[in-house]
Write a structure and sequence with these properties.
Blueprint (H helix, E strand, L loop, with lengths): L8 E6 L11 E2 L4 E6 L8 E5 L14 E2 L15 E5 L4 E9 L2 E11 L3 E3 L4 E3 L5 E5 L10 H10 L4 E4 L3 E3 L8 E7 L12 H14 L3 E6 L3 E3 L3 H5 L14 H18 L15 H19 L9 H13 L6 H4 L7 E2 L10 E2 L1 H7 L7 H46 L29 H6 L4 H4 L5 E5 L21 E9 L10 H17 L2 E4 L7 H14 L4 E4 L6 H11 L3 E5 L6 H10 L3 E2 L8 E3 L6 E5 L8 H4 L5 H9 L4 E5 L21 E2 L10 E2 L6 H16 L4 E6 L4 E7 L6 E7 L17 E4 L1 E13 L18 E9 L7 E8 L5 E7 L6 E8 L2 H14 L24 H5 L4 H8 L3 H6 L18 H14 L5 H8 L2 H11 L3 H17 L7 H22 L3 H4 L3 H13 E2 L18 E3 L6 E3 L3 E2 L2 E2 L11 H13 L4 H12 L24 H15 L10 E3 L16 E3 H14 L1 E4 L17 E6 ...
Parallel strand pairs: 1-3, 1-25, 2-8, 11-12, 11-27, 12-15, 15-21, 21-22, 22-23, 23-26, 24-30, 26-27, 28-29
Antiparallel strand pairs: 3-6, 4-5, 4-7, 7-8, 9-10, 13-14, 16-20, 17-18, 19-20, 30-31, 31-32, 32-38, 33-37, 34-35, 34-38, 36-37, 39-42, 40-41, 43-58, 44-45, 46-47, 47-48, 49-54, 50-51, 52-53, 55-56, 56-57
């Protein structure tokens, strides 16, 4: 088994309802295939079935087994789980998957390529090394002579032979019309000998072992020769008039046309202008008129489809007289007359469905008069229906006439046709469609045979092909009118075989063909499926399964004429076809031929290094690219003899299997007919003279050139020259480059084609010079087709001979100086690292080819090797072509992982992330590509996001690749921004700089792929270093968990000036640095950005609310405990009025205008104390207070310090006392939109309920804080969502805090058990236990909306419009706002679940799921609310009060962070409701989160947005990545 890092793994994502059967997925043996769940399936119990067999078991097409899931993290996380197949057996395999009651909700196929072995040592022959030559077996003579004739293939450099069928041929002598599928053709045995299949097998084995050649042969499943003996004994194996009575009308027409043939041949139609010798258009028109006047009226084909009207009416009349009623179970009460086609197709055999007649034609009464009227209506209708059948047949006959005339035109008049001459019995008017094994009789006598099944079973339909037909439809089955419309291009020597649906339909035929297949697979290494597109798929599938059981690594090739790649794929995937035959002959010019070379294999030069674990992507079928196939026209007739060599050179340069047909290399100037050719192929002789017809050798035609090309083709494939570039130099010259990505050697073949004969076409004598980058090591070969004096071509009677007048002048492996085609070669330098050789040609005549072996210039070659040497520390795939560095620079002496291990997570924030505004603080910015866009981050992630899209598609034309080729700017940017920092980051920068110094000196076309390789290696190492610094939850987590944890690195960083106010100097583990601004020592604690790019730098980076909603997920769960502590304490130092600031503004510019941040801060302290080992010690940490009193100026650090528990106590006491103040500097200076009253801040604990309440209708103290800004819409200064009163999440958070301090006090960790407050001038003590109980008792009566009009707790039953929910607030100044459905109550459920009755909580969560849950976020308002609007547009200013200037920010758009709380609440309460509910909920959670995973993977920001518009649509005004969005999703996964 391969080591894990070298093992190739492909991942196939399964998506619900996705059928991939028409996509081709090719895999190699030794690969692992993993099935993973796409977002639509995550959370479902998906079961994957496959018919790929267990090791050691036999493959059976319908034997499916269930694959077991692997959980790499050991947890049931659907983002990473997979089931896999280790592919070790060639063939086509199916998979399907389903869940719940759906067994098959998607399916597809994979094809595993065979591994071919040759030689005495059984070495592997890669598929791309194959060069094949086709032989018509009947032209090989006796088996004893085969080695001498087949030696031509060996000496010409081929390594595979394709033999047409070796069985006994039918009377037509066509290679593909077989009389006996089981016997070796006796004509291959000389007199007195009887060779068998075993003798053929021995020869095939000898060729494999001694000549290193494999042999394949055809299998023909679609037809058998008309004179096959066994078909006479088993006529059920064909389509005859007994088993296929729908063909009876077509047979009648066929016989009528045969009798027409005999009459024309006898001259009986001469008077009507139709002689036996048809030579012009008038004769064709005469054929038409004879058909319409004589033939069609005589045979009346429409009668086979019509009803005998009088009989049907009489039967109907009898039923009416008897009072019969229609059978409603059959008609369903629907009117409409049904005619039943006679399944036996007798004339007037169709009948009327009497139930439908009785339902449709109802007499007004049972009186005879009404019954007669009714029968009259039926009669009229039946006559109409008969007329309709007559019209349909008229259309069929029109098509039949067109097809007949078209056929005659081709066979007798067309220049490119066979010109058959006068009509006679041997060359009838048109080919017959059916066999007729009886003596002549008249047409009338023949018609009487129709009623004699013992005769009609021998009238068998011939096979053929139908232009433009659907290849998945069998044209001989019922429902097809091909035979009666004469649309079949017919092969009169072959009978079409009728397999039915399976072996039970025709046991003899299936058994016979199975034996035939087994014989073939026993003695040959592969098969060519003849006439594949017309062979029924289920038949070919069955037979190939049989063949693979005999020969597991069966090589299967086929030629398909479906006209569509998608349809090709159906055949390739179902049958497991290894290679599809493609033909260079199909190209009309050299440009098209070059396009085919590029299309059929290889990747572009300079392609990216792909990871060994990557998605499985559909591919095109592996090509067997031939000069020409054996059943197509000869290229010399269509192009010129001179083109054979250069076109063949282009084919040989293709990165796929290649080949030719015997005769091409010998310049045989005509097609070697598979039907008519009976001469033998010449034998091999080293000394054969050019004029010899019975022998060929290296002097013959282009054989010497072909040998050199075949050797080159095999070398390029086996040495890994897998990259291809095709350059159209001019109209006739094509240069094909094959490049090896590890050694950077190339071979460039310059081919001058000759599609037109130079004798008749003037070719340009000026050949443009070529510019070849690098150093030309040698001329691999130069060859030109030249004329010689050996007489001209005369067709030999005994041997298939070629044109002696042409030969090849060839030289191999010579220096540039020895070349006769290169006039001069100058070296021009295109830059410091690129040498380009300019080649001027002489004698590059049409019909020539020259191939150069090129390497990089020596310096670049060495530096590329050194680069590979340093890259091999990351993956062994770089070892080939690597060269050790003699004097390694200091920066590269330590492995990168060692340098990275010294980085902190704050350093990694710089290395990986930092958006434009963060970089600008340091005077930099993100890299911008001219004419394109800027990268999202200055760190590695900015580039990695773009390269991830470029790499899989090798999109080398992308602006980033162009920028890399044009200059070193991007490399310098990546390394310099790190070198300018101190310490370990600078060392990583120097390491990158040193790698880039090598990179700058290799050719520019290679820079993108190596730049990517360096970056990928650095990035993966950085991720490893990141995970090592995080908690075990992250280290052992799934990819999804790790992606989210990267959000912590993304959001947590240190800016140019510290964002947090200083901490007490008494605290340990506080990081310090020398200030880049003042040069003094200062603290440099990590702060948490609210979101990128809008809230990332300056005073808008840090917000109290955002920080503490995100802190648990991004810092505590990721293990960043010290940094979390520092943030908690820094904010504690800014407490003022008993509140934590909303906008921190470094503490000095803080705004104390929110009522909720202090409660989120308290929740985080609680989370810290419970989550972190010894976490409660934070309570005793000293806090340096900036504002020890409400009205003082900011104090210097250390002037006023107190333990954290005192600060907590102050916050609680101030709320109990009541908070009321006016913001400092109130007015436009701090808020240009706020109305004056909005600056008045108020918050208190309501003594009656214990709820924290506050705010007014002119300010917004919670996270839904949109302030109106539009003067035009008159919403300026009005909050969209004031949420004054007691906001539900604040009540939940305060309950959590109070409950916690009660517990702390009981454990002796918090010194206070309550607080003294002034109420109505008296000092009162409020105990926390009492407050806690009061909240518990007040909550559900105050917040639950029962919908019961008699509920005593319901103050405003008239405002209830959704029942079974919790209010959004309590005591709002606009009472209806309390009753709006919003997602905020789910927050209270998570932090204080004890407030909720389980059943009520569940009911409310179900409503929220139905009404508020979107694809990624939660709707911020009930869509049934009159002011709901789900699309946020901050730029829109119109007259709409509810929309202008983004007024609906929290009135519908789907925010992401509440989803985390909703899902966590569901999980919590589901657990309380039992296992079944919990399992269903876990499924929902996984399913919802899968969409976040997908978004995260695809997002160039590698983040989750702040919000989306309705139904998950992108919102351009949202932050692209938001701290709390990432955090709450991570918390959900932690709970899961």
């Amino acid at each position: 088994m391969l080591p894990q890092h070298l093992k190739q793994t492909r991942v196939l994502m399964l998506n619900d309802k996705e059928n991939l059967e028409r996509k081709l997925f090719r895999l190699e043996q030794g690969f692992e295939l993993q099935f993973r769940l796409g977002p639509s399936l995550q959370g479902r119990r998906v079961v994957v079935h496959t018919n790929y067999p267990l090791e050691g078991q036999q493959f059976k097409q319908n034997n499916f087994r269930v694959l077991t899931w692997s959980y790499p993290t050991g947890k049931e996380d659907d983002s990473d789980k997979f089931c896999s197949l280790d592919l070790k057996i060639a063939g086509s395999y199916q998979y399907y998957f389903g869940y719940g009651d759906t067994e098959r909700s998607g399916r597809g196929c994979i094809v595993v390529d065979p591994v071919l072995h040759v030689g005495a040592d059984n070495h592997i022959l890669p598929l791309d090394c194959i060069t094949i030559q086709t032989y018509l077996s009947k032209c090989l003579g006796h088996l004893d002579d085969w080695p001498d004739r087949l030696r031509v293939a060996k000496e010409s450099g081929y390594n595979m032979i394709h033999l047409t069928p070796l069985q006994t041929l039918g009377e037509s002598r066509s290679c593909y019309s077989l009389a006996d599928q089981l016997n070796f053709n006796p004509e291959f045995s000389p007199d007195g000998q009887s060779y068998s299949w075993a003798d053929v097998g021995a020869l095939v084995e000898k060729l494999k072992k001694e000549w290193n050649m494999l042999c394949i042969t055809d299998v023909v499943y679609n037809h058998t020769a008309s004179n096959s003996v066994w078909i006479k004994d088993h006529p059920e194996c064909g389509y005859n008039l007994v088993n296929s009575p729908h063909l009876r009308p077509a047979w009648v027409l066929d016989r009528a046309i045969w009798h027409l043939t005999t009459r024309i041949a006898e001259g009986r139609y001469k008077a009507k202008g139709l002689p036996a010798d048809i030579t012009n258009e008038n004769h064709l028109n005469a054929v038409r008129s004879v058909l319409w006047q004589d033939v069609y009226p005589q045979i009346k084909l429409w009668e086979f489809y019509q009803v005998k009207v009088d009989n049907a009416v009489e039967q109907f009349r009898t039923l009416l007289h008897n009072g019969t009623k229609p059978d409603r179970s059959k008609t369903g009460g629907k009117k409409g007359l049904r005619i039943i086609q006679d399944p036996n197709y007798h004339r007037y055999g169709s009948t009327v469905d009497m139930d439908s007649a009785l339902e449709t034609f109802v007499p007004d009464s049972s009186s005879p008069q009404h019954i007669e009227e009714c029968c009259g209506r039926l009669k009229q209708k039946l006559n109409e229906l008969n007329e309709e059948q007559h019209n349909i047949m008229h259309q069929h006959q029109e098509q039949a006439a067109n097809c007949l005339v078209g056929n005659i035109l081709y066979e007798r008049l067309a220049d490119h046709g066979p010109k058959l001459g006068p009509v006679c019995r041997k060359n009838p008017l048109v080919t017959r469609y059916f066999t007729f094994p009886y003596h002549d009789m008249t047409l009338e006598q023949e018609m009487q045979l129709l009623d004699q099944p013992d005769k009609t079973c021998h009238f068998l339909a011939h096979n053929g092909w139908v232009m433009g037909d659907d290849p998945l439809r069998n044209f001989a089955e019922p429902g097809s009118n091909v035979y009666v419309r004469r649309e079949l291009v017919c092969w009169a020597d072959s009978v079409k075989l009728r397999y039915g649906k399976g072996p039970e339909d025709c046991p003899f035929l299936w058994a016979h063909m199975q034996k035939y297949t087994e014989i073939t697979a026993t003695y040959f290494h592969g098969v060519r499926l003849d006439n594949c597109h017309s062979t029924p798929l289920h038949v070919a599938e069955f037979m190939l399964d049989v063949a693979r059981a005999v020969c597991p690594n069966l090589y299967v090739v086929a030629e398909l004429f479906t006209g569509s790649e998608e349809l090709d794929n159906v055949f390739v995937t179902k049958l497991g076809i290894t290679s599809l035959i493609r033909e260079a002959m199909s190209a009309g010019d050299s440009h098209e031929e070059g396009r085919l070379v590029y299309r059929y294999g290889g990747e572009p030069v300079g392609a990216f290094v792909q990871p060994s674990l990557r998605p499985l992507i559909p591919s095109i079928a592996h090509a067997m690219f031939l000069d020409v196939t054996h059943d197509n026209e000869c290229p010399i007739q269509l192009r010129s003899a001179l083109d054979s060599l250069p076109s063949s050179a282009m084919v040989s340069m293709a990165c796929c299997a290649t080949g030719s047909t015997r005769g091409y290399d010998e310049l045989v100037p005509h097609q070697i007919s598979v039907v008519k050719e009976e001469r033998f192929y010449p034998k091999w002789s080293h000394s054969a003279p050019p004029t010899s017809t019975g022998e060929v050798g290296f002097q013959t035609a282009i054989i010497a050139g072909k040998l050199a090309l075949n050797k080159l083709h095999q070398e390029l494939a086996s040495e890994g020259f897998m990259q291809v570039f095709v350059d159209q130099v001019d109209a006739d010259i094509v240069a094909v480059t094959r490049h090896c990505p590890s050694t950077h050697q190339s071979v460039v073949a310059v081919c001058r084609t000759a599609f037109r004969d130079p004798k008749t076409h003037q070719y340009d004598t000026n050949v443009p010079p070529m510019f070849i980058p690098g150093k030309i090591e040698e001329v691999v070969l130069e060859a030109r087709t030249v004329e010689r004096l050996s007489g001209s071509y005369k067709k030999d009677d005994n041997y298939i001979n070629g044109m002696p007048e042409y030969t090849v002048e060839i030289k191999e492996h010579i220096s540039l100086q020895e070349s006769t085609m290169v006039k001069q070669a100058g070296v021009t330098s295109k830059g410091p690292s690129e040498f380009v050789q300019e080649i001027s040609f002489q004698k590059l005549t049409p019909g020539s080819v020259i191939a150069f072996r090129v390497s990089l210039d020596p310096k670049a070659q060495k530096l590329a090797g050194v680069l590979r040497y340093y890259l091999s520390q990351f993956s062994p795939k770089y070892r080939r072509g690597s060269v050790a560095d003699e004097n390694p620079p200091e920066a590269l002496q330590k492995p990168l992982a060692q340098l990275m291990s010294k980085l902190t997570l704050a350093d990694l924030n710089v290395l990986l992330f930092r958006c434009d505004s963060e970089e600008q603080e340091d005077g930099g910015g993100c890299y911008s590509i001219p004419g394109w866009e800027s990268l999202k981050y200055a760190g590695l992630q900015g580039l990695m996001s773009v390269l991830a899209d470029i790499r899989p598609n090798n999109d080398l034309g992308h602006p980033v690749c162009a920028n890399l080729r044009q200059g070193d700017w991007l490399m310098d940017f990546v390394s310099n921004r790190l070198i300018h920092r101190e310490g370990p980051l600078a060392q990583v920068g120097q390491w990158l700089g040193a790698m880039f110094n090598y990179l700058k000196h290799i050719p520019r076309y290679l820079i993108p792929c190596y730049f990517d390789a360096i970056l990928v290696s650095t990035y993966i190492t950085a991720l490893d270093a990141t995970h090592k610094l995080m908690s075990s939850f992250i280290q052992n987590g799934s990819s999804f968990v790790r992606y989210l944890a990267l959000g912590s690195v993304q959001m947590c960083g240190v800016g140019r000036s510290p964002a947090l106010p200083p901490l007490s100097t008494k605290i340990e583990d506080v990081p310090y640095r020398i200030s880049p601004i003042t040069g003094q020592k200062e603290q440099c604690c990590v702060s948490l950005a609210a979101g990128l790019p809008h809230f990332s730098s300056g005073i808008f980076r840090c917000w109290g609310r955002d920080t503490f909603i995100a802190l648990r997920g991004l810092m505590l769960l990721t293990g960043r405990h010290t940094e979390a502590r520092n943030i908690i304490l820094a904010f504690a130092g800014t407490l003022r009025h008993g509140l934590i600031p909303n906008l921190l503004g470094e503490g000095r510019c803080a705004r104390y205008n929110c009522r909720d941040a202090v409660w989120w801060w308290l929740q985080c302290i609680q989370d810290y104390a419970t989550h972190v080992p010894h976490g409660h010690e934070i309570l005793r940490c000293p806090v340096t207070r900036m504002y020890p009193t409400d009205d003082c100026e900011p104090m210097a650090p250390g002037e006023s310090e107190q333990p954290l528990y005192d600060v907590i106590q102050e916050a609680l006491q101030r709320h109990l006392e009541g908070i009321s103040y006016r913001e400092r500097n109130a007015g436009p200076k701090i808020d240009m939109h706020m109305k004056d009253e909005g600056f008045n801040v108020f918050a208190k604990v309501d003594p009656a309920t214990g709820f924290v309440t506050g705010g007014n209708r002119f300010n917004c103290g919670t996270w839904m804080d949109k302030m109106g800004e539009s003067e035009r819409a008159k919403n300026k200064g009005m909050p969209a969502t004031p949420r004054d009163g007691a906001a539900v999440e604040i009540v939940g958070l305060s309950k959590s805090a109070v409950r916690w301090v009660v517990e702390l006090h009981a454990e002796g960790l918090f010194p206070y058990d309550g607080a003294k407050v002034n109420r109505d001038g008296k000092e009162v003590f409020v105990s926390y236990t009492q407050w806690n109980q009061q909240l518990q008792q007040s909550f559900e009566p105050g917040y639950w909306v029962s919908g019961d009009p008699h509920d005593p707790n319901e103050k405003h039953p008239d405002l209830v419009h959704k029942k079974g929910i919790y209010k959004d607030s309590y005591g709002a100044s606009s009472p209806w706002c309390d009753y709006q459905l919003r997602p905020n109550f789910t927050i209270a459920m998570v932090v204080s679940p004890e407030l909720f009755t389980v059943e009520r909580a569940w009911e409310a969560l179900e409503v929220a799921e139905k009404k508020l849950l979107g694809p990624l976020g939660m709707k911020t308002l009930d869509p049934d609310d009159m002011v709901y609007c789900g699309v946020y547009d901050n730029a829109l200013d119109n007259d709409n009060y509810n929309l202008a200037k983004g007024f609906n920010y929290h009135q519908g758009p789907e925010w992401l962070w509440p989803v985390g709380y909703f899902l966590r609440a569901k999980l919590y309460f589901a657990k309380k409701l039992g296992e079944e509910t919990y399992a269903k909920t876990a499924t929902l959670v996984k399913n919802v989160l899968s969409r976040h995973y997908t978004h995260l993977e695809r997002s160039p920001w590698k983040g989750l947005p702040e919000l989306t518009n309705e139904n998950g649509q992108y919102c351009p005004f949202s932050c692209e990545t938001q701290a709390w969005s990432l955090a709450t999703v991570l918390e959900t996964l932690y709970d899961l």
